[in-house]
Amino acid sequence: MARLERAMTPGCLTVLVVLTVVLGAVLGASWYWSRHTDEANAERRRQAQLRLDDRLRRTEDETIRALGEEGSADPDALTAVVHQHTRAPVISYDASRHALRARVAERAEYESRTLFGISQGVIDRCLEYTYTPARGRGWTSTTSVLTYDSCGPAVSIAGAARTVGRRVAALEAAELNDAGVRRALAPYHRFLTVSVVTRTGSAVRVSVVVTEETARQCYRITRDGSRVSSVPAQTCRG
Fold first, then answer.
1. Residue range 45-97, pLDDT digits in tens
2. pTM beyond 0.85, yes or no
3. In this structure, which topology does domain 153-233 adopt according to CATH?
4. Helix/strand/coil for 116
5. Alpha helices, H only, the chain
6. Which of 76, 86, 92, 108 counts the highest number of beta carbons within 10 A?
């Protein structure tokens, strides 16, 4: 038995050394892979951030240019211009300054790798654009970055406006009247008030007020044939 134990001791030590070396190699490789992956993920996030910043700058510049080219000073026309370029669901108008303030949530995605596979990294931002007339001609703008929770009501209002658009799009031709539209939108009375329903030729326009927490926005939903558009407005008239 003693001989057997003496014979096994070198073998056990050899196995132990091999296991230690293998474990060290695995841990070293894992550490290197993890560090390399973290650096690669950070670089992908940085590139996504740069792309987002560039997109936001272009949005701001394009909106300023479009406002300068807009021939009307009507707040609803200016609101439509801002919405077209920023896609902001909530746009307020300050009559004393002739200024428009648009709040919108923006997102950039990038690939993020982990030990368990590939996931989607996300950069979320809540932005508030403020557009005011410049001295002389044209417009100026400022952009504020808010806490993402500040965009919660705007995100909800955007969803509500899409719901209204889908409901109006689903109506039969015979239902495209005041009574039919109000009946179709009645289930959403908690956050939606129908103001006016008008028809001009083949086009039906529905003006609604969407309310979410502290935010309130008028929307004009227009259906012309199979086409439906949804645009924020300052006044809920026909």
1. 999 999 999 999 999 999 999 999 998 899 999 999 999 999 999 999 999 99
2. no
3. Nuclear Transport Factor 2; Chain: A, (3.10.450)
4. coil
5. 2-69, 75-86, 152-170, 178-185
6. 86
